[in-house]
Amino acid sequence: MGGWDVTLVEAAPFLGAGVRTMYYGGHPHTFGPRHFLTPWPHIFEFLNTYVPLRRCADHQFLTYIERDQTFYDYPIHMDDIGRMPDRTEIRSELSAITMEALRGLAPSELAKLDRDQLLKLNGAASAKNFEEFWVRSIGRTLYEKFVDGYSRKMWMIDDNKQIDDFTWSPKGVTIKEGPRAAWDTAISAYPIAFNGYDDYFRIAADGVAVHLSTRIERYDIANKAVVLKGEKRRFDVIVSTISPDILFDRCHGELPYVGRDFHRIVLPVEFAMPEHVYFCYYAGAEQFTRIVEYKKFTLHRAPTTLIGLEIPSRNNKLYPLPLESEKAKAKKYFDMMPDGVFSIGRAGSYLYNVDIDDTIDHAMKVAKALKS
Ligand SMILES: Cc1cc2nc3c(=O)[nH]c(=O)nc-3n(C[C@H](O)[C@H](O)[C@H](O)COP(=O)(O)OP(=O)(O)OC[C@H]3O[C@@H](n4cnc5c(N)ncnc54)[C@H](O)[C@@H]3O)c2cc1C
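Above: query sequence and flavin-adenine dinucleotide SMILES. Below: predicted holo structure tokens.
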């Protein structure tokens, strides 16, 4: 492959991890939604070459708010505020945020501002923690309804003030205006093929010595060597997508993650959610964070529909915690890596905001570095 002899070691009995297509009740699905969302046309074009993609630009997400017994759009949509029982309070909080931001500005300066600039003026961009960011951006009432309980559930924490690395949030939007479709500023797509992304894994592993259901027994990263199936092997280059603490016997301590338990439910209806709705988030005391109707992505035709339900858990490690102290710990591991060792992907970077497109971008950067 590109002049290199490549050895790929994978703990699971298959390639692709959660992006691999599984089947339940005849329905193809992944572990969680795994739709391809990217602001980068060249990454879209790259993946589209190997697994032709269908755009799903119309997708809408909802959040269920039990205290209002109502579903609203997610991201929070300005036009939904009029439907909320506490709209007077919400509007007054939002206008206080605006007033605070505008204090002392000349009318000529005001005219030039968009919402993002307003947020920065309000100090939301320099907030010290996740809670402060959101309260300064949308006010306390909307924060408590949509964000507080969801985030504590998602990260399995008691207090959102603990989250001090939140540059990933909220995907550039706090309150949305305009079209209802979620993330309409990015390309959103899903593979056309019945087996989803799977052909990509096969093509990517062509010419590679693949060891499935295998773990490295011992790492000697300083010397770019590992023990694989009882044999010590030295490599010119190591590309790792696992948690960096594992590569160094956790000498600086374990890096924390949150995982998900995943449940599949087939329902005796052709569609469970309204036409453009692909996911529903649950922001309250429910144990689960979201449900996904897979057919919306796969366009699988059947008289039944498949719902995937995700419950935060410690049974697997899928989401690096967004805490500066843990990022600093991860950096100690990165600093121990010699030239020719690349730690990439979500766990490999120890960054929550690494999605499918970012993992491709990381791999492309490694390929470029190896060519130069
Ligand atoms: C529930 C969920 C839903 C998501 N939905 C989306 C989405 O809709 N859109 C999007 O863009 N992104 C989504 N993501 C994120 C995205 O899918 C991941 O960030 C991306 O796939 C990570 O790729 P990766 O190669 O870094 O890691 P992974 O795909 O996790 O690959 C790491 C591999 O390492 C293997 N491994 C682990 N430990 C060892 C070991 N010790 N030895 C050998 N092998 C090991 C694992 O089995 C796995 O195959 C989602 C993530 C989750 C958890």
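The longest helix spans residues 87-102.
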